[in-house]
């Protein structure tokens, strides 16, 4: 089972993840795209990476906006290193 990170450790990790926020035991970020097709393509790329990491985000999409939230169910819904790793992967897909 993954261990929850401390608030200080989460803050340190988010220093390298611009735009990501920590609240309500999750890290989250909103991503914007030129159109719906690009937003859905991004979601599809995330799906393949998340499946490889066996860690699945909460994803919410409206038109050209994608909201991602991450926490680890096995750690009681808290933020763990698995969330930080997936957030970094998501960032690499966006850039």
Automatic annotation (TrEMBL):
InterPro entries assigned: PCD_sf, Pterin_deHydtase
Leading EC class: lyase
Origin superkingdom: Bacteria
GO molecular function, one term: 4-alpha-hydroxytetrahydrobiopterin dehydratase activity
Coiled coil: none
GO annotation (BP), single: tetrahydrobiopterin biosynthetic process
A Pfam family it matches: Pterin_4a
Stored Gene3D superfamilies: Transcriptional coactivator/pterin dehydratase (3.30.1360.20)
Enzyme Commission designation: 4.2.1.96
Keywords: Lyase
Catalytic activity: (4aS,6R)-4a-hydroxy-L-erythro-5,6,7,8-tetrahydrobiopterin = (6R)-L-erythro-6,7-dihydrobiopterin + H2O
HAMAP family assigned to the protein according to its UniProt record, in alphabetical order: Pterin_4_alpha (MF_00434)
Family to which the UniProt record says this protein belongs: Belongs to the pterin-4-alpha-carbinolamine dehydratase family.
Protein name: Putative pterin-4-alpha-carbinolamine dehydratase
Organism from which the protein derives: Fodinibius halophilus
């Amino acid at each position: 089972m993954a261990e929850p990170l401390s608030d200080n450790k989460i803050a340190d990790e988010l220093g390298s993840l611009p735009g990501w926020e920590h609240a309500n035991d999750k890290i989250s970020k909103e991503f914007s795209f030129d159109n719906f097709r690009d937003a859905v393509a991004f979601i599809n790329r995330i799906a393949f990476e998340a499946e490889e990491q066996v860690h699945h985000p909460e994803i919410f999409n409206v038109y050209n906006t994608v909201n991602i939230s991450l926490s680890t169910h096995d750690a009681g819904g808290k933020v763990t290193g698995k969330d930080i790793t997936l957030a970094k992967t998501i960032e690499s897909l966006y850039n």
